[in-house]
Amino acid sequence: MKKSEKVAFVIDTLEEIYPKVDVPLDHKDPYTLLIAVLLSAQSTDARVNQITPLLFAKADNPYDMVKLSVEEIREIIKPVGLSPAKSKGIYELSHILIEKHNGEVPQSFEYLEELPAVGHKTASVVMSQAFGVPAFPVDTHIHRLMYRWGLSNGKNVLQTEKDAKRLFPEEKWNKLHIQIILYGREYSPARGWNIEKDIITKTIGRKSVINSI
C-alpha cells in the first residue's frame, strides 16, 4: 500500500469511528483551555477535568488568578502532578496576559510560546481548538501511532509533527489530531494492546511492529 493510500485509509477509518469530536479537556474559553492544557502535561485528561472545576471556581480568568498566591494555586492543582512548576507558570502567565495582552490569550504561536510553562504543543492545542488555526499538536498517542503506522520514523515529536503536516491535508489537522488521540487510547494503547482490535495498525502497520507482537 502506497503512503497516500495509507493516509486515506487512516482518515476514512477515523472519520467512521469518530465522526464528531470534542476537545477532551473541559473549558469554556481560550484562557481556561490554555490552563487545562498546561495542567495536562504528564497527567491524564480525566484527572485534569476533576481539578479544573475547583480551580476555575476560584479563578477562571487572569485577573482573578493573580489574586491567588502560587501556593494557593499549587494546593488546588497538586493531584495533577508537577504542581510546583505548573502553579508558578499559571500565576506568571496570568500576570503577563494582563500586562501585555489586556487579559486576553494571544492568537499567535510566537506570543503563546513566550508565556511561562507554555511549550509548542500547548500553543498548538490553543491555536487549533480555541482559534481554529490549523495546527497538529503531537502527544504521546500520536507519536506512537504515526510510528506504528509507518508514517513517521519515531525519532522525536518534532519530526512526527512535520510528517503529519506533510501527509495529512491541512483542513483536517484540527479534527484529525483529536481523532488519532481517541483512537490511540481506545484501540492502540502503549500497554495492553490487542492488535486484533486495532484495525488501522493491523491493515497498514509497520511490518517490524506487527512482527514483534
Automatic annotation (TrEMBL):
GO terms for biological process: base-excision repair, AP site formation. SMART domains: ENDO3c (SM00478). Binds 1 [4Fe-4S] cluster. It catalyses: 2'-deoxyribonucleotide-(2'-deoxyribose 5'-phosphate)-2'-deoxyribonucleotide-DNA = a 3'-end 2'-deoxyribonucleotide-(2,3-dehydro-2,3-deoxyribose 5'-phosphate)-DNA + a 5'-end 5'-phospho-2'-deoxyribonucleoside-DNA + H(+). Keywords: 4Fe-4S, DNA damage, DNA repair, DNA-binding, Endonuclease, Glycosidase, Hydrolase, Iron, Iron-sulfur, Lyase, Metal-binding, Nuclease. One of its GO terms (molecular function) is 4 iron, 4 sulfur cluster binding. Residues 39-186 form the HhH-GPD domain. Its EC number is 4.2.99.18. The keyword Iron-sulfur applies. SUPFAM superfamilies: DNA-glycosylase. The keyword Disulfide bond does not apply. Its cofactor is [4Fe-4S] cluster. PANTHER family: A/G-SPECIFIC ADENINE GLYCOSYLASE/ENDONUCLEASE III, ENDONUCLEASE III. DNA repair enzyme that has both DNA N-glycosylase activity and AP-lyase activity. The DNA N-glycosylase activity releases various damaged pyrimidines from DNA by cleaving the N-glycosidic bond, leaving an AP (apurinic/apyrimidinic) site. The AP-lyase activity cleaves the phosphodiester bond 3' to the AP site by a beta-elimination, leaving a 3'-terminal unsaturated sugar and a product with a terminal 5'-phosphate. Belongs to the Nth/MutY family. This is Endonuclease III. The gene is nth.
